[in-house]
Amino acid sequence: MREVAVIGVGMTKFGEVWNKSLRDLFTEAGMKALINANVSGSKINAMYVGSMSAGRFVGQEHIAPLVVDYAGLAETHIPATRIESACASGGIAFREACMTVASGMYDLVVAGGVEKMTDISGGEATETLATAADQEWEGFFGMTFPGLYALIATRHMHKYGTTPDQLAEVAVKNHANGCLNPNAHFRRKITAEQVLEATRVADPLGLLDCSPISDGAAAAVICPLKDAHKFVEKPIRVLASGQGTDTLALHERADICTMEATRYAAKAAFAQAGIKPKDVDLAEVHDCFTIAEITAIEDLGFVEKGKGGKATEDGMTRLDGEIPINTSGGLKAKGHPVGATGIGQVVELVEQLRGEAGKRQVSGAKRALAHNIGGSGASCVVHILEVPE
Amino acid sequence: MSVPRFWREIPQRYNLIGKKCTQCGQIYFPPRDVCPKCRRESIGKMEDYKLKGTAKIFTYTIIHIAPTEFVKQQPYIMAIVELDEGPRLTAQLVDIEPENVKIGIRVKAVFRKIKEDGSKGVIYYGYKFKPIS
Q1: Which residues of B touch A130 (CB under 8 A)?
Q2: A172, A313, A316, A372 - which has most CB atoms within 10 Å?
Q3: Chosen from B2, B33, B56, B90 to mutate, greatest number of chain A CBs within 10 A
C-alpha cells in the first residue's frame, strides 16, 4: 500500500450559521481545502462526503453528487460517495478516501463532511441525533441521546468514583481552548460552577456537559505521500487509520464504561503506526458529552481505565498539559455539526502539525491523533497523523 | 409509526418474550435471530423464551429534556436493568422517586402505556420497571 498525505484542509466556522445553506457550507469548506492544497478541482479523482442525516436535517438526500456539482465540477463526472456512520461519518469518509489513495486506485481525493442542523427546531434535531441509537429498544421507551451518555456517567461514577467536578473540568478546558479558535462555535470561557448549575438535561449531565447543535463543513485533500511535495511545502503524513464497531444498543455491552469500538480502532491504529499512546503529542477526541472525553482518553490508552476524571482534574489534558486534548475546543466548544466533526478534527491536527495553530499551538507537535465516535460508541474511527521526516 | 411496525413487536414489549438458543442455552432480550456465540449453528434453534421480569438496576439517569412524545412525562427515570436471566434492557422506572433510585435496587417489569401518536394515533404499550417492595 502507498503512504498517504494530507496536502490541504479547509473548514467553515462552526456554529449557528443562519445565512448559509447546506450547499453553501460544503462548497466553502471544499474550496478552502483545494486552495490550501494548491490543487485545481479539475484534477480531483474522487470525493467522499460524510453526512449523518442531510435527509432529516434539510430534507435532502443524495448529497454526494450535489457536492461535486456545487464545487463547479459536474462536467468532470468524478465518482462521489456519501458515508453515513452517525457522528463518525466525517472520520470514516476520511478513512475511505485514504484507503482509495493507499490502494493506488486514485491519486487525488477530497474527503469532506457537512451537517446543516439549524434549519429544523432544536427538538427535531435532538430526535434526529437519537436515530444513531437503537430506535426499537432504546428510543421507543423514551431514551434520549444525552440520556445514554448519562447512563455511562452514572456507572463511571459508581465504578471509579468519577465526580461531577471532574466532568465539568472537561467543559471548562474545552471552552478555554475554543476561545483560541476563530472557527469555534463558542468562544467564551465558562466556570465549573456554571457547568454544575446549568439546566439539567439528563442527570448527571447538564446543558454545559453537552456539545451544541451546530452547522458546519470541513474538507481535506489527500494524495500519495511521494507526490505531496509537488503541491505543498508541509504535507502531513497519515500514519495510521483504525476503525471499529460495537453493539448499537448500550445495554448489550458487558462494560458500558469502556468503548470497545474505540479500543479496537485504537489498537489497530497504534499497531499500524508502530507507536504507543505516549508517543502522541496531542489528540482530538470525541467529547460529544463531557463523560465521553473521559472514557475516550482511557480507551485510547492515554490514562489507565477509571483515571480519566482524575487526570482531567489534574490538568494533564490542558493545552499546557502532558497530553493536550481537544486543542480546537473539541465538540463541546468548537461545535458538533455531526457529519463534519471527524474532518474538523483532521483540520485541527493538520494545523497543529504544520505549526499554524496560532494561540493554541502545541509547541513542537510531531504526532497527533483523531478519535471520532458514532452513536453511543457503536462506531469508532481513529487516525494518527505526523510530520513526515 | 406504522401499525405493523409496532404490532410485530407486541410479544416482546407486552410480555418480555425473548429468545433462547437451544444450541448453547444462552438467553437473549431483545430477541435476535442469530445467536452471537453459535451463529450459523443457531439457525432454526432460537426458541421463544418468557423472561420472569425480575431484575436489578445496572445504571440510570433522570431525563429532564425529553423527546416530543415524552414531554408530558418529564422528568422521568430511565435505566438499564439486568434481568435475573442475564440480559440487560433499557426501560423507564416508575413508582419510585428519583432520589431513591440506586444501582443494585431490585425491580420488576410492569405493563404500562409508553406513549401515543398524537390524539388520534396508536397508543403504544410496553414494559416499565418498578421497585420490588
Answers
A1: 67
A2: A372
A3: B90
pLDDT reading at B1 higher than 80: no
pLDDT reading at A67 higher than 80: yes
A364: left (phi over 0), alpha (psi -120 to 50) or beta: left
User: B105 and B42: one domain?
Assistant: no
Any residues with CB less than 8 A from the CB of B10 and at least 6 apart, and which?
Answer: none
Cell of residue A122, nine digits? 432544536
Judged by CB atoms closer than 8 Å, whether chains meet at B59 and A127 is answered as no
Q: Is residue B87 in a domain?
A: yes
Contact status, residue B32 vs residue B46, Cβ threshold 8 Å: yes
Instruction: Identify from A205, A251, A255, A260 which residue to disrupt to test chain B contact, counting B C-beta atoms within 10 A and taking the largest count.
Output: A251
Q: Give the domain-ending residue among B8, B26, B50.
A: B50
Could you tell me if residue B84 is inside a domain?
yes
d(CA A115, CA A111): 14
Report the percentage of chain B scoring pLDDT > 90.
88
Residue with cell 411496525: B5
What are the pLDDT digits (tens) for A259-273?
999 999 999 999 999
The domain in which residue B73 lies consists of 54-131
Domain count, chain B: 2
Residue B4 belongs to some domain of the structure:
no
Q: How far is CA A328 from CA A252, A294, A366, A371, in A?
A: 33, 17, 17, 13
Predicted TM-score (pTM) above 0.90 = yes
Looking at the structure, tell me whether residues B91 and B122 fall in a common domain: yes
Rounded mean pLDDT, A301-305: 98
Pick from B9, B66, B80: which is nearest to A251 by CB? Answer: B80
Cβ-based contacts of B124 with chain A (< 8 Å): 140
Decide if B123 contacts B113 (C-beta within 8 A): yes
Is A141 in Cβ contact with B63 (below 8 Å)?
no
Domains of chain A: residue spans and CATH: 4-121+214-236 (3.40.47.10), 128-210+238-386 (3.40.47.10)
**B33 and B58 both lie in a single domain:** no
How much is the mean pLDDT over chain B? 95
The average pLDDT across A60-77 equals: 97
Answer whether residue B91 is part of any domain. yes
Residues A136, B30: C-beta atoms closer than 8 Å: yes
Q: Which residues on A lie below 8 Å from B60 (Cβ)?
A: 151, 154
